[in-house]
Design goal:
The chain is built from 10 helices and no strands. With 267 residues, it is an all-alpha fold. The longest helix is centred in the last third of the chain and has 33 residues. The termini are far apart.
């Protein structure tokens, strides 16, 4: 049976001819593939102008003395993305049913689903890693003086992100709905109820009523899966925007060098 010829490559996706002195004048298939990718990126960029925003975000000045301490924020964001991805896979099997469905779904994911124990382990221990990274990042920001003018708003957003991270850990602890999660959550909601003014209302909101009931698990699941991750994602976007706009601070042990013209004027 005769072999059919390959369809022709569209003109916009064809690689340009080689420059004089490069190759033997023949265009390899990899060149066509590379040029096709460039053409697709150019097509999208012409209609969205994303390259300008990407250059503004990535190509910026970095202060002298930047070290590994400055990667704690990126590590925290990576931990959040890991939590979001693994949480989506766990939500595909989880059932917020307090009559046994919640515990059984967790048991099913851990023991029977392919790589379920691995994904659940990443989500479980990743939450602890994220909390640790948030505190380390906040400590670095405080000791480096990055909360001062003009970065006060970014500091406030970071504090809110810390609170939301703790809230996400608290609401996620109940979801396995075993004995330890049940009684630990009761203790936690009772502690919240002792707060001044808003404490009793906050405790009733978390329990979805005056007492720990069947709807409490659904309330915690909705907060853990929808409310808190959405707020964290939005605040991370605002946080990154302000970091890009205002820049980062140099380490406190580095002193700014005087301009040569100022030195001449002082002399």
């Amino acid at each position: 049976m005769p072999k059919l010829p390959a369809p022709p490559v569209p003109a916009p996706l064809k690689a340009p001819p080689a420059r004089p002195g490069e190759g033997n004048g023949k265009v390899a298939p990899v060149d066509h593939g590379r040029n096709a990718g460039v053409a697709v990126v150019d097509w999208v960029d012409e209609r969205t102008s994303l390259s300008g925003g990407a250059r503004w975000l990535m190509f910026r000045k970095v202060p002298k003395g930047t070290n590994w301490f400055y990667t704690l924020g990126s590590a925290t964001m990576f931990a959040f993305l890991s939590q979001a991805v693994t949480g989506v896979f766990l939500a595909m099997y989880y059932r917020p049913d307090p009559s046994g469905g919640a515990y059984e779904s967790i048991r099913h994911v851990t023991n029977e689903v392919f790589l379920g124990q691995f994904v659940r382990g990443m989500h479980k221990w990743g939450s602890s890693v994220m909390v640790i990274l948030v505190f380390l990042h906040m400590g670095r920001t405080f000791f480096f003086g990055a909360y001062k003018y003009p970065r006060e708003l970014n500091w406030v957003i970071g504090v809110v992100l810390l609170i939301l991270t703790m809230l996400m850990s608290f609401t996620g602890y109940l979801l396995p709905f075993d004995q330890r999660a049940y009684w630990a959550t009761i203790v936690g909601t009772n502690i919240n109820g002792t707060g001044p003014l808003l404490g009793p209302y906050l405790s009733d909101f978390l329990r979805a009523g005056p007492e720990f009931g069947a709807t409490t698990l659904s309330r915690f699941y909705a907060i853990h899966m929808l409310l808190v991750p959405g707020a964290i994602a939005a605040l991370i976007g605002a946080h990154l925007y302000l970091v890009t706009k205002l820049g980062t601070t140099a380490p406190p042990w580095l002193k700014a060098e005087k301009d040569p013209e100022l030195r001449k004027a002082e002399a």
